[in-house]
Amino acid sequence: MKSILILLALALAAVTAAPQTSLDEFTEVEINELNVVDKMVSAAIHEAEALADDIVKLVEHQLLEIVMYPMHQLEQAVSDIDARRQESEECVANEALHVAGTVETATVDFYKCGRDATTTSIQLVLDTKKAVLQLTYDGYSLVKEVRSCMKKTNSVMKKVCKAKCSVDAGLFAYSGQKSIRHLIGLRKTVPAVGTDAKACTLSATEQAMYEFGMVNENIDVCIYNLTH
After folding, report:
1. What is the model's pTM?
2. Is-contact 4 27, C-beta < 8 A?
3. Are 29 and 112 in contact (CB under 8 A)?
4. How far is CA 210 from CA 101, 117, 207, in A?
5. Structural domains of the chain ordered from first start
6. Where is the Protein TsetseEP domain (predicted)?
7. Nearest to 165 by CA among 59, 50, 26, 13
8. Tens of pLDDT along 103-119?
9. Sign of CA dihedral 84, 86, 91, 96
10. Longest dimension (CA), the chain
């Protein structure tokens, strides 16, 4: 909404600007126009960067949920089993192959689950960065163009230059809003990217926890047999 108001202010300034009667007055109007362009560009870039930051954080958190959190749960379960060596070194050692096999299977499953989601997430982040960089480049190019017009001394060339700036400002306004909508769309797609992957890793984690439960039961039986 803020960027739309700025665009309206820019359009109004272009339409209602009165003919200049002195160098001082003309310079003041030019400075005002430059300020409007600066505000428009800054607002668009700021909004785009904020959206990009949200997207990257959402992607990072989602990848943690898909792979890192399940892996941490797996590591904790293995650590808990290893801690039972205090109860019986022999009984825990007997289950070493079972534990290693469970870890290997779960790790492979996690990789398969997260592969497509990770690839899609990376592409999503790259698209986000590309959109922000393009908007930033276009914005700074527009500001540079306006500043260049201000430096022209020939009145005819200056008017031609300013007319082109007005057109380019309109194009930037259009492309800027299009980029913002694109980024909003990308942000909305982030949760969908990880839906299947989360379900997949959840299933793999549950299976691994079941196997570790069997390991603990076997250790319990082993310890009982050794002590009775």
Report:
1. 0.67
2. no
3. no
4. 13, 25, 5
5. 2-14+22-227 (1.20.1270)
6. 88-204
7. 13
8. 999 999 988 888 888 88
9. positive
10. 108
